[in-house]
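Open question from group meeting: does this chain pack into something compact, or does most of it stay loose? Before anyone orders reagents, we agreed to write out a predicted structure and look at it together. Recording both the input and the output here so the notebook holds the full record.
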Amino acid sequence: MSFHPDVHTGPPRHASQRELRREGGPFAFTEANRERLERVAAHYPPEHRRSAVIPALYLVQEQQGHVTASAIRHVAEVIGCTPAEVDDVVTYYAMFFREPVGTYVLQVCRTLSCALRGAERVAAEISRQLGISPGQTDATGTF
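Structure tokens returned:
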């Protein structure tokens, strides 16, 4: 493929903002969690086993508290899809944590209707009271 030498295509139009996932230590489901996943995956036809990706990620998070790159690779292997497909699910849903979080995770709605009702003030007050910024965990590991 060639382009006309007089046609300026300009700078690239897309630069990925995707960050590399924290590697974490080696991950494998415990025997009990693997059995739980197999019971859930049995509800799907074999050719749709990867539909169990969300329950599998919940089990990862329950087992280690957050989702790491090694956990993503393990889930992909267990349910039969690519690590990229699992990572797409992790990055799409806010309920999967990519970093360690506190015991309690406080979330403030950021939609327009919530913003109009003062959500930004609520978030600012929570940050002030806990001494952290959004996305951070306090020193005690509680929030």
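Observations to bring back to the group:
The chain is about 45% helix and 0% strand.
The radius of gyration is 20 Å.
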